[in-house]
Amino acid sequence: MSARPLFLPPDGHPRCPWCAASPGDALYLRYHDEEWGFPVVDEARLFEKLCLEGFQSGLSWRTILHKREGFRRAFEGFDVHRLAGWGEAEVLRLLQDEGIVRHRGKIEATLNNAARCVELVAEVGSLAAYVWRFEPEPGEAVHQLNESGPSRRLSSDLKRRGWKFVGPTTMHAFLQAMGLINDHDRRCSVYPAAEAARRAFQRPVHLP
Question: What residue ranges are annotated as transmembrane (predicted)?
Answer without folding.
Answer: none
